[in-house]
UniProtKB/TrEMBL annotation:
Topological relation to the membrane, as annotated: Multi-pass membrane protein
Function: Converts cobyric acid to cobinamide by the addition of aminopropanol on the F carboxylic group.
PANTHER family: COBALAMIN BIOSYNTHESIS PROTEIN CBIB
Gene: cobD
UniProt name for this protein: Cobalamin biosynthesis protein CobD
UniProt subcellular location: Cell membrane
Chief localization: membrane
Endpoints of the signal sequence: none
Lineage: Bacteria, Bacillati, Actinomycetota, Actinomycetes, Micromonosporales
Pathway where this protein functions: Cofactor biosynthesis; adenosylcobalamin biosynthesis
Species in which this protein is naturally found: Dactylosporangium salmoneum
Keywords: Cell membrane, Cobalamin biosynthesis, Membrane, Transmembrane, Transmembrane helix
Pfam families: CobD_Cbib (PF03186)
Entry similarity comment: Belongs to the CobD/CbiB family.
């Protein structure tokens, strides 16, 4: 199997993996990301020190090990199209979280629509790390829409982007980086310095995917009753107001597509953040949460098709050379 055939197998694997995620959601047992989390946790216990150099060493080993394994897997399957397709499908399915994300969003929409505030508060930790105890229905809806917008990039578009760019090593490397950011990239006393490298890696890895997510959100706005022109206007105006260089792009585009306003006061345990407002509409209602879940699925589907197409385009250009 030549290089072009390998990329065609990758394209088929991307579509197959995305289909598996759409049908089954996250693997329920033996999830590779959970296994990686255990590996990274054990590595942290060995390498932890309260400084940035130790954090950089930790990130290099924690990302480098699975990427090396993925490179070896890609090399071993280079002459076997079916095996190569299966490897990419397995990596894609393991890395994506689009179906589960939308499902959790719809559960929240249902509980809010039924005025089940305790149930909605119990549901929020499945979507984000915000403290739900004091949140009312509009704030729970806002937290959910913001999480759906951000995680459409982190859990769907970004893995597909890196699969298109670098095949199996790309998607495995991205998922490792993103998982490390969730584990040690947050601002706490323990990780303020140790987690810096992981957080910066995640920012860099999501720079292009977050903007692709925003662009696809603009294009998909009519599917949820929005206008692309308005989604584009809000994205360009508000996308850089957010403290994150990437999350704001996705959240602003979603606010414009849904015709709502996001941002405000966020409580994470003992830490409180005041976020700038994104969008010109009112606060999201339960129906907007359901629309946000639909928007997330539409963006993810488009990203899968684009990723497979990009992999095929790379193969054709290689063949012409």
């Amino acid at each position: 199997m030549n290089l072009s055939a390998g990329r065609r197998a990758d394209a088929a694997g991307i579509l197959l993996g995305a289909a598996l995620d759409a049908i089954f959601g996250d693997p329920r047992r033996w999830h590779p990301v959970a296994g990686f989390g255990q590996f990274a946790g054990a590595l942290e216990r060995r390498l932890y020190a309260d400084d940035r150099r130790a954090g950089a060493r930790f990130a290099a080993v924690a990302v480098g090990a699975p990427v090396a394994a993925a490179v070896a897997g890609a090399w071993l399957t280079r002459r076997h199209p079916v095996a190569r397709t299966a490897l990419m499908a397995a990596a894609t399915w393991s890395a994506l979280g689009g179906a589960s994300l939308a499902r959790e969003g719809r559960v929240m929409a249902g509980r809010l629509a039924a005025n089940d505030l305790p149930g909605a508060r119990d549901q929020l930790p499945n979507l984000c790390g915000r403290d739900p105890a004091a949140l009312d229905a509009p704030e729970l809806a806002r937290a959910t829409v913001e999480s759906l917008a951000e995680n459409t990039s982190d859990a769907v578009v970004a893995p597909l982007f890196w699969a298109a760019v670098a095949g199996v090593p790309g998607i495995v490397g991205y998922r490792a980086i993103n998982t490390l950011d969730a584990m040690v990239g947050h601002r706490s006393d323990r990780y303020r310095r140790f987690g810096t490298a992981s957080a910066r890696l995640d920012d860099a890895a999501n720079l292009a995917p977050s903007r692709l997510t925003a662009a696809l959100t603009v294009a998909a706005a009519p599917l949820v009753g929005g206008r692309p022109s308005e989604a584009l206007r809000i994205w360009l105006r508000d996308g850089s107001r957010h403290p994150s260089p990437n999350s704001g792009q996705c959240e602003a585009a979603a606010a414009g597509a849904l015709g709502i306003r996001l941002g405000g006061r966020n409580v994470y345990g003992s830490r409180v953040e005041e976020r700038p407002h994104l969008g010109d509409g009112g606060p999201p209602a339960p129906a907007d949460v359901r629309r946000a879940a639909t928007l997330s699925l539409a963006v993810g589907t488009a990203a899968a098709v684009l990723a497979a197409g990009a992999r095929l385009l790379i193969a054709r250009r290689r063949r012409k050379r």
